[in-house]
Amino acid sequence: MSEETDQSLPVSGGQADFTVTLKGGGNTIDLTKAVRSLTGLSLKESREMVQVGTVVVLEGVSREAALRAKEVLEAAGGHVEVK
Hints:
By secondary structure, the protein is an alpha+beta fold. Helix content is about 50%, strand content about 25%.
């Protein structure tokens, strides 16, 4: 993960809750496994989320949880946005 990405998210005092959005990506099998591990959803529900395309994976999470989710999803080949 780049330092630029870390610096783009507020460290403290600003936004406390973050939303992690998956905007598609490569291998759907790897992304399905990543979504399942992050959300605790069933295999079917995780696969459906990945197949939709752009979908909110996590919302209302801490900065650390958002960065961790971004790391996991990008490692699985996903394109991720954190707000």
